[in-house]
Write a structure and sequence with these properties.
The protein is an alpha+beta fold. It has two domains: 2-13 and 139-183, no CATH class; 22-137 and 186-282 and 294-304, no CATH class. Helix content is 53%, strand content 8%. It has twelve helices and seven strands. A five-stranded mixed sheet has the order 5-6-4-3-7. A hairpin with a 3-residue loop joins strand 5 and strand 6 (105-109). Helix 5 packs across helix 10. The radius of gyration is 22 Å and the shape is globular. It starts with a helix and ends with a strand.
Amino acid sequence: MKAVFIATVLFLALPHVVRTSEAPGQRVVKVQKTSLTKDEETQLGEQAAARAERHFKVIEDTDVEEWLRGVGAKLSAVPQAGAYSYQFKLVQDDRVNAVAFPGGLVYVNTGLLTAAANESEVAGVLAHEMSHVALRHGAANETKTRHLKTALQVAGIAASVAGVPVAGPAIGLGGEAGARAVTSKYSRDSERDADLNGARMMAAAGYNPEAIALLLEKLSKSGASTKSKPWEHLGADHPDTAKRAQWIREDIHFYPAKTYDAESGRFPEIRTAVGQLTASSRQPVAGPESSPAGTKTAGTETVGSR
């Protein structure tokens, strides 16, 4: 009887989901339900991003930032992006990755821009990460963490009243740590929904969704990782990249025929500029004339962590 009560409390603590309407036969994408307001969600993301920025260098370059905002603006304008004010920052990191925090802060690795073949591939990665925001995956994880903590505490009280010995760390502060361990990564279904919503976002914005499938296949063949450890607490162990490409292509069959014309034509110069910025930031500081890291010097852009 005690076990049934505890299981019931845990079940009631889990968040439900709201489903969006899709074409008949097309996989339904889930928008997670969360107890957080949009303002609380944004605050959560800003706090997490502030902690993450201790681990990397944000590169400030007017041309690259303008281009990223342009790509992001096209993606943000479609319904699949949700009503969020997305912001984009460039991070010095060789890994082919980007990450988005609740509320819409998106960090883009230099490794993505130097490895991508075109603007559409970059847009595909951004659309996937923006989909985690639009589908409220991070906010739902936080809600789940809070609910599980409360459920564990209630279950501990009930067990104590019933005369069942309870180890303090498992129910008290340890319960919070345990809940965070359970909810620290997105589920396989959440990753699939972000892939599919991202591909739909691309198509609606005028980017060819086939590009993200091609990039995933390239990553699968090269063995490159899409996981970035500095953001592991809000990131995910993504499913197999080849499998992800397959389910995106299956979804594309449902899209109406259209001409994809969102490419700005600027990507080659942007990729070259990012390569130069990355190489410049790695040059060793020599002599008293050199400026400290994070300050602007002649002929270079500001490079530094915040």
